[in-house]
Design brief:
Elements lengths: L2 H12 L5 E3 L8 H9 L4 E4 L5 H14 L4 E6 L13 H13 L1 H6 L14 H10 L4 E5 L5 H9 L3 E6 L2 H9 L4 E5 L5 E2 L14 H12 L3 E4 L5 H9 L4 E4 L13 H7 L7 E4 L7 E4 L2 H8 L9 H15 L22 H18 L2
Parallel strand pairs: 1-9, 2-3, 3-4, 4-5, 5-6, 6-8, 8-9
Antiparallel strand pairs: 7-11, 10-11
Helix pairs in contact: 2-3, 3-6, 4-13, 8-9, 10-14
The structure holds flavin mononucleotide.
The site of flavin mononucleotide (FMN) has 29 residues, from β7 and β9.
């Protein structure tokens, strides 16, 4: 299929004119960021993953105040009990309790109680109910496919569903789960690895190896995610078989990004080997700029207490660190392309990448 047809197929799913999505980045993506993408003709995506149903409703309302164009909300797949699908084993719970004990002094330092309460993942069914009630046009799902009952509820309500995958096998699972488009996340990507079928190590496939096979084997429009920082890279992804691109790290330094100023500032100084994969912050493998905290936790043997229990123990610490401007304790999630992240409005960044992409495509035709 020609690129134009692939791209049109994707655009038809949400009524857009530009095949660009912002990545759902918890704590970074704002309604203003998503709205700017929508206003440019792309698909703005809210990071709903970790929001309570009330917060989710407020973000959707805020987005709707800023744009009347279609948008998406991202959620993390859970099992029937509302827990994570993965790694929620009892031994991880014990490790997480040990982690929380080890963090006691740091918690005190940050103004929390030594025995602070662990955070809870939001109630998935309540989140889904908000999306249905608010008639959200597109739902993106990370960390696995939706259970049949949830997927059916969305289909019945006419909601378009996009699913994230990190390997051909996961792409096929997503197709069986009935998604309308795939978000293929390459190993270059910043933030959490979204794999759900194979081990973390086996799921570190580079973006260029993912796109073509996933597009051919599933026949679905593929959105390329991971390391897309320039128009040349976007053009390469389209040439490889993608229908559109997702920008995460490329928007981290934008005016509309809620990333901590120290997080934004750090990106300019990161070279291509400056990011690492760590489980320190959530228990899930996550690509971040390494800082002293990651190193210290690894050296103390506290780097892996499983997901979501590590997240439960760490979330209050990270929130307090952010509130206290403790730049040394931040989770500096970023992709391998971090050094190319531009400052300015989301609109200007998207237009810059769009222009570069068009001229690259014209010059190679
Ligand atoms: C700061 C940051 C936070 C992220 N948080 C999430 C998240 O909460 N949920 C999710 O599905 N993906 C998350 N991601 C991963 C993105 O969905 C996407 O795969 C990635 O940003 C694409 O690679 P890039 O950052 O190189 O553009 C995050 C990425 C970054 C950079």
């Amino acid at each position: 299929m020609a690129t134009v047809d692939r791209t049109q197929k994707l655009l038809d799913l949400f009524g857009g004119t530009l095949a660009v999505l912002n990545a759902p980045m918890a704590g970074v993506t704002t309604p203003a960021m998503a709205a700017a993408v929508c206003e440019a003709g792309g698909l703005g995506v809210l990071a709903g993953d970790l929001l309570s149903p009330e917060e989710l409703r407020r973000e959707i309302q805020e987005l709707r105040r800023l744009t009347d164009r279609p948008f998406a909300v991202n959620l993390r797949a859970r099992d029937k009990e509302g827990k994570s699908q993965f790694f929620d084993a009892p031994e991880h719970r014990e490790k997480a309790q040990a982690l929380q004990r080890a963090l006691g002094d740091l918690a005190l330092d940050l103004g929390l109680s030594e025995h602070y309460e662990a955070a809870e993942l939001p109630d998935f069914e309540a989140q889904l109910a908000v999306l249905l009630e608010c008639r959200v046009p597109v739902v993106c799902v990370s960390f696995g496919g939706l259970r049949e009952a949830y997927a059916d509820a969305l289909k019945e309500a006419g909601v378009v569903v996009f699913g994230a995958a990190t390997s051909l096998r996961e792409a096929k699972v997503m197709r069986s789960a009935g998604v309308d488009a795939l978000i293929m996340q390459g190993a270059e990507a910043g933030g959490p690895r979204l794999n759900f079928e194979k081990s973390d190590e086996a799921s570190l496939v580079g973006l260029m190896s993912l796109i073509g096979p996933a597009a051919r084997a599933t026949g679905l429009p593929v959105i390329a995610a991971g390391g897309i920082m320039t128009g040349e890279q976007a053009a390469a992804a389209l040439a490889a078989g993608a229908a559109g691109v997702m920008l995460g790290t490329a928007l981290l330094r934008s005016d509309e990004s809620a990333a901590h100023p120290a997080h934004k500032a750090q990106l300019a100084y990161v070279d291509d080997t400056g990011t690492v994969l760590t489980r320190v912050f959530s228990g899930r493998l996550t690509r971040v700029v390494e800082n002293g905290f990651v190193e210290a936790m690894r050296e103390a043997g506290l780097a892996d207490a499983g997901y979501p229990n590590t997240w439960r123990a760490m979330a209050p610490i990270l929130a307090a660190a952010r509130a206290a401007d403790r730049a040394d304790l931040l989770e500096l999630a970023a992709g391998q392309g971090a050094q190319l992240a531009r400052t300015g409005s989301v609109r200007s960044i998207i237009e810059y990448i769009g222009r570069q992409c068009r001229s690259t495509r014209e010059s190679t035709q």
